[in-house]
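Revision sheet: structure tokens.
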Amino acid sequence: QVQLVESGGGLVQAGGSLRLSCTASGHTLSSYLMGWFRQVPGKDREFVARISWSGGATYYEASVKGRFTISRDNAENTVYLQMNGLKLEDTAVYYCAIGVRLPYYRVGDYDYWGQGTQVTVSS
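Predicted:
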């Protein structure tokens, strides 16, 4: 059974940076497309970024493009989300998950979710 654990969240001032990690146990991630999502209480979980199994292809939601970078280290079984230039509206719980079906931008396209890590951006 795959288990994903996110870490690296915290409280940061607007304009600051955080790097989130998503580490897997129970199965190697190297064959899978991986994604990051985020959710604010009372709102739907939304797509943030995804990365191909090799790391050669990435895709970002428009509001984070140019500020966030998704990467992976398959040897460490870990996927990262580097978040720079954080804004108040980036405050959310961030989740990683394994992509299981096209088109890889809906919640239903992913499985094996982690428990999430809270990111809070203050003014």
